[in-house]
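G., before I forget:
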Amino acid sequence: MTLRNRWRKTLSYAMLSLTGVCAAVAVAILFVLLGYLVYNGWRSVDWDFFTKLPKSPGETGGGMANAIVGSFQIIALATVIGLPVGFMAGIYLAEFGGKAFAFLVRYMADLLNGVPSIVIGIFAYAVVVVPMHVNSALAGGLALAVMLIPITARSTEQFMNSVPQTLREGALALGASKWKTIATVVVPAAYRGIATGMILGVARIAGETAPLLFTSGNNAYMSSGFTQPTASLPVMIFLRATAPYEDWHRQAWAAGMVLLLLVLLANVAARLILSRGIAVQK
Amino acid sequence: MKKSSPWLGIMSGLAILLTVAQAKVLINAAGATFPYPIYGKWFEEFAKVDPDAQINYSSIGSGGGIRQFSEGTVDFGASDMPMTDEQLGKFKNKPLHFPTVLGGIVPTYNLPGVTQELKFTPEALAGIYLGKIKKWNDPELTKANAGVKLPDNEIVVVHRSEGSGTTFVFTDYLSKVSPEWKSKVGVNASVSWPAGLGGKGNEGVAGVVKQTPNSIGYVELIYVLQNKMAYGSLRNAAGVFLKADLDSVTEAAASAAKTMPADFRVSITNAPGKKAYPISTFTYLLIPSKIDDPAKKKAIVAFVRWMLADGQKYAAGLAYAPLPNEVVAKEVKQIALIQ
Amino acid sequence: MATSAAASAPPPGRTRALLQNLRNGDEVARLITLVFASSILLVTFGLIYQLWITSALPRHKFGFGFLTSSMWNPVSGQFGALPFIYGTVVTSVVALLIAVPLGVGAAIFLSELAPPRVSSTFTFFIELLAAVPSVIYGLLAIFTLVPLMRDYVEPALKKPLGFLPVFSGPVFGFGYLTAGVILAIMTLPFIISISREALLEVPTEQREAALALGATRWESTWQAVVPYARLGIFGSIFLGLARALGETMAVTMVIGNDPSIHASLFAPGYTIAAVIANEFSEATGDLYLQSLVGLGLVLFLLTIVINAMARLLIIATTRRGSAHP
């Protein structure tokens, strides 16, 4: 073998090993981050964390019961508004869309998807907080709903489109009207994918902090309604992590671990649903 | 008849639930981070006195407090700096200033290896924040700290990143002791800092200084005490090096207390007196002079009254100085102006 | 249905037809879903409109100067966007410089070399990285990355390379470089995932042809496969860039909050998203608040452009790729 060929072979071996290193590094990052978070969070989480209200600065103890409930409130509101709207919009795009209008809607949905969440927060502030003169869970929920709608619409459309045309034609041939076909044949066929898309969308907005900073704000107590400032886990993590108190850092770790585990669980569950669905279809 | 009774039960149950739920009055407040530790304590204690009132305080900085108060997004505000005439002009009914406690702003630093307390001259502090004094072993610092081995490291300057009453008081002091500061930077809640890192809130600045070696920051006394951080003494107008504590901060307010204007807007930085701590300040609650909601008005008035009486007892425990008696007396009279 | 031979009055005929159709369930369904779909348009236009009118003051006062001025001084009422645009661009570029080689390398490994089981498991984990919320990256960054950068990495860079302006000046831990690193970690999963898919779409003939001509495995990959997938890879890079530009929380927690322009990567800075997050609820005065909204508008436009380019590139690859849905 010539020298040049030996060089080429060595280079090939070296570069390909390097790519393996890259992949290993990428995966390692995940495990390091997760590991560190769980390690710190595990040491910090206790029963008080889930049941008590936060204490004033400098005092130890307390928990984030209000943030957990508040997050739940805000996400529930966002889900109730965002999922149905997104779902219906997705059906329109997949089943009824004409050329021009559907293209416009699709384009705008993708555009909205790419907007940084803090800008959406500004929008919700201008539209809800300013007229109402108060920070509220309503404003926060609306901001998150605005993020959820395009995600849901596009994923619903994608999975509706993946249903084979033959199913639709079969139903129509049997005399079903279009909407009946959609409701009883197409949607059930695509429900796994649609559900996955919804779960992933909700998991994504569950971790959002930026749009909540100046819409739902924060509350030292349990929120007394949707038109009052409401504490949320992500905002609490931000406030606690940037403060000097060790006890607050402890709380931030605990909250971070809880939030991350919930988000990851939702992601893993969604992917399992989807992969099982594909296996079944094949 | 039979069918209507469960409905009646549900509706009356809901009605009772709603009225019970309404009984708790939620009052939103926002503002200074400077007094956050004591306000937090106060609201907690006041809730024991009046369980129906929930005061939700957002510690976002005096600038934010004034802004949200002006916009009506909160029921009352809190600020270390008094509102300007321009800011007051935006209100239909001019709001009232109620001083709550006195506090001191200290120069806190993080110098691993230096165990002695540092002395800061006004020139040193101004020079550091102007970006002119760049290293810890600069002559301006070493000459005031004979016997301390200051390292040859760059000073990491930390300041506030948002509109802050603490910044206002700090820059007010610097403007009084350094003509260069006054002309180059000036006094305000948010200035164009010549150098350094920004932290959010007193908490943020303390957090950054605590984590970053060779850094210096300006925070309210309680934050360094609660976090066991090092802080230096400052040379006051009478030439004495003093650390901030209850006595030195109280002394700073002594002369102002006698000549307190009716609206309580004063500056007590660089106060005369041998025992006066140079960067001291009152901190204020901004209360509307007209509160429409009767339940909120009742709760707010009750809180202010409580704050001026029982509340003052908690101040010393958290390293804030309680208000001078003359000031308290004047404030009690001002409560009558809340309609 | 109701076709009248005499086409005398089109409007009544069409309305009647519409009303007739409404009795038809399909038409109802179409209208209902249409309304929901229009809400997307409504929201988007509303967003743009709101951003535009709420940033009117600085636009009138500074005009184009808003974008070119580097003075951000709330005291004197001067607001310039340049330091934030600079910080946003610098941190994103640093992020890409780290994430692109790492990501494309990993994608090559996962698509070309790894056995299918390894590839799908690795991909599964890497995609989970994309689901981690920004504030959690920020939390980890403050307590792990900042000390690491301040005590080890930045001094290590400063020693040999301190003469370069990008590596000069004091080391804080907080600053452009640290923000760039955490952004790199956040954009990595997108680049890997999309590049991997683009590489998988490359037909095996390309590989085989190169190997048949005597290329080594690496040469076949680098010179035949990767160029074929380059549109998708570029698309992933643009997508990563768009994500990095808008990232808020993780950057806010480590950037150092200094609204000025610094040459050194070790220096603290500010990004558009970070300044809005920090100062929005506290901006006193309309000009200040509206300047922040103006910054939001700039960011919005920036991300739209980059996202559009990303999508075009990715669509171009998938169109060219395999036919199955």
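The radius of gyration of chain A is 24 Å. Chain A is about 80% helix and 0% strand.

More on Monday.
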